[in-house]
C-alpha cells in the first residue's frame, strides 16, 4: 500500500562478529557483512557509521546489553552504530546496534526515543553529539591499532578481537581519535542541501546534535 512503511525484519545479532568494547571495529565488520549478504547495497552507499560522544567523553545511552541496571543505561566514553538509509523515500532509516537490547535493527525514530531519550533532562556536559560518516569513506580511511585499549604496561583493558587490526587504505595505522573527537562547537548550524552533500563526501563526515540527527537522514539525496 502506498505510503505505508513495513516493520523491519528482525535479525539475530549474535550472527555478527562482536568483541565487547571494540564497537568501532564491530560496526566496520557489520557494515561489510550487510553489504555482502544483500541486506544493504553492494556498494554500501546506503550505510552510515555514526559515532556518539562528547567533549567530556561521557555519554549516557539506554537499553545497552553491558548495563547492570534495570533501565539498561551505560555511561560510554563513545559508542558506534550503523544507520541504514535506503533509497526508497517511504522507508524509515534503520539503526543497527550490536550492543543494544532493542530490536535489531530498530527504526531510527524509536531508537532515538528509547536509547538517546531526548526528553530526559541532562546536564550540558552529558549531551550527546553524533559524527555521521558515509560507510564507503569509513572503509577507505578508518584505522585502529587498538592503542586506546592498552594500559601503560602494555596489557589490554579488554581482550582484543581475534583478527588483525584495521589499517586504512593509505597505510595509516590509527586515527580513531579523530572520529570520536566532537563537541557542541563542531555541530552544523543548519542542514542546507550543500551541508548534506558534504556529509557524504568528507572523510570525517559531519557532527550533529540529537535534535538534528533524524532531520539529516531525511535530507540525504
From TrEMBL:
Catalytic activity of the protein: N-terminal L-glutaminyl-[protein] + H2O = N-terminal L-glutamyl-[protein] + NH4(+)
InterPro entries, alphabetized: N_Gln_amidohydro_ab_roll_sf (IPR037132), NTAQ1 (IPR039733), Prot_N_Gln_amidohydro_ab_roll (IPR023128)
Keyword Repressor: no
Signal peptide start-end: none
Record GO terms (molecular function): protein-N-terminal asparagine amidohydrolase activity; protein-N-terminal glutamine amidohydrolase activity
Family: Belongs to the NTAQ1 family.
This protein's name: Protein N-terminal glutamine amidohydrolase
Amino acid at each position: 500500500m502506498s505510503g505505508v512503511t513495513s516493520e523491519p525484519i528482525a535479525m539475530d545479532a549474535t550472527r555478527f562478529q562482536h568483541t565487547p568494547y571494540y564497537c568501532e571495529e564491530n560496526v566496520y565488520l557489520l557494515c561489510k557483512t550487510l553489504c555482502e549478504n544483500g541486506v544493504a547495497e553492494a556498494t554500501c552507499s546506503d550505510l552510515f557509521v555514526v559515532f556518539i560522544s562528547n567533549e567530556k567523553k561521557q555519554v549516557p545511552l539506554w537499553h545497552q546489553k553491558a548495563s547492570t541496571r534495570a533501565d539498561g543505561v551505560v555511561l560510554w566514553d563513545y559508542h558506534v552504530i550503523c544507520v541504514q538509509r535506503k533509497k526508497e523515500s517511504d522507508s524509515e532509516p534503520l539503526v543497527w546496534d550490536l550492543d543494544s537490547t532493542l530490536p535489531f535493527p530498530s527504526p531510527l525514530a524509536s531508537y532515538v526515543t528509547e536509547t538517546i531519550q531526548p526528553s530526559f533532562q541532562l546536564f550540558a556536559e552529558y549531551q550527546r553529539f553524533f559524527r555521521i560518516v558515509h560507510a564507503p569513506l569509513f572503509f577507505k580511511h578508518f584505522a585502529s591499532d587498538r592503542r586506546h585499549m592498552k594500559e601503560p604496561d602494555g596489557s589490554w583493558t579488554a581482550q582484543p578481537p581475534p583478527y588483525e587490526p584495521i589499517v586504512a587504505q593509505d597505510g595509516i595505522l590509527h586515527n580513531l581519535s579523530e572520529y570520536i573527537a566532537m563537541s557542541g562547537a563542531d555541530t552544523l548550524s543548519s542542514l542546507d542541501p550543500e551541508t548534506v552533500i558534504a556529509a557524504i563526501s568528507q572523510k570525517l563526515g559531519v557532527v550533529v546534535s540529537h535534535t538534528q540527527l533524524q532531520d539529516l537522514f531525511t535530507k540525504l539525496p
